[in-house]
Every structure is written in C-alpha cells, then in structure tokens.
From TrEMBL:
<keyword id="KW-0325">Glycoprotein</keyword>
<dbReference type="Pfam" id="PF07686">
    <property type="entry name" value="V-set"/>
</dbReference>
<dbReference type="InterPro" id="IPR013106">
    <property type="entry name" value="Ig_V-set"/>
</dbReference>
<dbReference type="InterPro" id="IPR036179">
    <property type="entry name" value="Ig-like_dom_sf"/>
</dbReference>
<protein>
    <recommendedName>
        <fullName>Ig-like domain-containing protein</fullName>
    </recommendedName>
</protein>
<keyword id="KW-1015">Disulfide bond</keyword>
<dbReference type="InterPro" id="IPR003599">
    <property type="entry name" value="Ig_sub"/>
</dbReference>
<dbReference type="InterPro" id="IPR013783">
    <property type="entry name" value="Ig-like_fold"/>
</dbReference>
<keyword id="KW-1003">Cell membrane</keyword>
<feature type="signal peptide">
    <location>
        <begin position="1"/>
        <end position="21"/>
    </location>
</feature>
<dbReference type="InterPro" id="IPR052051">
    <property type="entry name" value="TCR_complex_component"/>
</dbReference>
<dbReference type="InterPro" id="IPR007110">
    <property type="entry name" value="Ig-like_dom"/>
</dbReference>
<dbReference type="InterPro" id="IPR003598">
    <property type="entry name" value="Ig_sub2"/>
</dbReference>
<keyword id="KW-0732">Signal</keyword>
<keyword id="KW-0472">Membrane</keyword>
<dbReference type="GO" id="GO:0005886">
    <property type="term" value="C:plasma membrane"/>
</dbReference>
<dbReference type="GO" id="GO:0009617">
    <property type="term" value="P:response to bacterium"/>
</dbReference>
Length: 141
C-alpha cells in the first residue's frame, strides 16, 4: 500500500514538473455594431493549410473558415456577409462587420501541412454593449 502511494507521488510529481505553463491569450474589446479584424501571421514554409475556429464560453469549438494559402472558405454558418477571410503576404485575416454579442468568443488560427497542424494565434474577443454595461453598472452601485 505504502509503495503504491510513493509511486503515485513520484509519477504525479514528474507530471507536474513536465507540464508546460498555460499561456494567457490576448483580449480584444469591441463595441456592438463595430468592425474588427483578427490577424494570423503565417509564412509559406509553415505549411499549406489555414483554419479559423471559434469557441464561445461553454460551447464546443466551431470551424469558421478553412482552406489553403491561396483560397479560404467560410463555413456555412459564418457565410452571412458579416464574416470574411483574406490573406496578405505573411498574414491571414478574419474580419467581422457589425459585431454582435454572440460573436464574443475565443478565436483560433491554425496552420500547417496535411500531416502537422499548429495553433498559431488565439485571441479572446470581448463584445461590449449597452445591455452588458447596464448589468455591470447595476452590480457596481
């Protein structure tokens, strides 16, 4: 019994020491109705595929756009005229027009080859609006 406990402690200690520290992601604040553009720096040597994902708090991750360096396509749910994707020489962009409260989420950019994918950029998009401000001021007073 004691030997099992010691083994558990040693393994737990090794796992804790080898775990990477969590990285804090940047925060972008935007007002309801405004426009915002997210950037994903990628070089051609990094691979041929670029993907954008959205994860709202408490929900599963959603694919916003997917494609190659030369052509990205919005997923059906996001192909509504408010979202667009574009690319520059070393940057890929996810743009949102007329931002709504439901756009608040963590957005991820993933790139790579068919065999290896890497999450390059992540950002939390905080959407501030009059309703949200009302609740904040109510709780602060």
């Amino acid at each position: 019994m004691f030997t099992g406990f010691v083994s558990f402690c040693l393994v737990s200690s090794a796992l804790i020491q080898s775990a990477e520290a969590a990285h804090q992601i940047p925060l972008i604040k935007v007002e309801v109705g405004k426009n915002v553009t997210l950037q994903c720096p990628v070089t051609e040597k990094d691979g041929k595929f670029v993907h954008w994902f959205k994860q709202s708090p408490g929900y599963m991750i959603q694919t916003v756009a997917t494609g190659s360096y030369t052509k990205q396509t919005l997923s059906e749910e996001f192909n509504n005229g408010r979202f667009s994707v574009s690319e520059g020489q070393t940057l890929y962009f996810l743009s949102m027009r007329n931002v709504q409260k439901e756009d608040e989420a963590t957005y991820f950019c993933q790139y790579g080859s068919a065999y290896s994918q890497t999450f390059n950029t992540s950002v939390y998009l905080a959407v501030n609006g009059k309703l949200c401000d009302m609740f904040i001021s109510f709780y602060l007073t």
